Amino acid sequence: MREQGAGGRWKEQLPPERAYKRRAGAVAPAVEQDRAAGGRGRRHVALSDGRFARASISLRLYRRTRRIRAYLRWSRDGKTQERYVCEVEHASRGENLAEAWQRAKERGLLAGETLPPESTASSPEVRAAMRANRGKDTGPEMALRRLLYHRGLRYRVNSRPLAEIRRKADLIFPSDHVAVFVDGCFWHGCPDHYRPAVKNADFWREKIDGNRARDAETNEKLLEAGWKVIRVWEHEDPARAADTIDQLLRRSRVSGVRRGATPPDVERACDGALQASDDDPAVAQD
């Protein structure tokens, strides 16, 4: 990508909004930035006092010149700092963010984060994933709930599908016997993003293997009880996941299949990528 390009790709018309503007229903901003940078641990800038600040890339359209410029932004002592990175010309926002993060790295604007001595993580990225993990109301969960709620669907949040087993689903549709789990890539061993730990390898292998086995057992118990199970990886597109859930519920309701139905198998919502909104309800009762 040529930094000095004079509008380059966009000669006679403005770039499309999808090249620089966040779309409705997209992944949470932090998730989007982490993905483009290649991990949360790769988003740091060094402060002069030895501390680190987590940065983000801002894309701005300059209409007069039809250029999209990328800026690295971070906060220091409550004040926003900013540094110009480059011009970008890709047709999608994701590609432009990735390009800008790569250029920021090449220009030496980013700093590596070191692990504290007491950390059991194998890398800064793993430590960030571990610290960001929450049992409920995660960014991917909130994004999916918001989309489903706006489609008119009502659900219960963080509830047990079966009273007799002490395991909760992130969303349940009780009348339809549908349980939805949004699985974190690190803790549930995502085949695309999970990487075996180097530090304390045996401990983490047993931990992740145990989580996988627990997931499989949960699926089996729910299926035996007549529930349909949908699992969504945190990196997957929430809009596509919402489509899968919506279609499953509509098929079930049109065919009259309600309680007591026998589901065919566990479904994975989609293969692709997963913003929370203030108006998204914490619980939307079915």
Automatic annotation (TrEMBL):
CDD domains: Vsr (cd00221). SUPFAM superfamilies: Restriction endonuclease-like. Pfam families: Vsr. GO terms for biological process: mismatch repair. The keyword DNA damage applies. Keywords: DNA damage, DNA repair, Endonuclease, Hydrolase, Nuclease. Residues 277-286 have a biased composition (Acidic residues). Residues 1-19 have a biased composition (Basic and acidic residues). GO terms for molecular function: endonuclease activity; hydrolase activity. InterPro entries: DNA_mismatch_endonuc_vsr, Restrct_endonuc-II-like. Residues 1-42, 256-286 are annotated as: Disordered. Belongs to the Vsr family. This is Very short patch repair endonuclease. It comes from Streptomyces hainanensis. The lineage of its organism: Bacteria, Bacillati, Actinomycetota, Actinomycetes, Kitasatosporales.
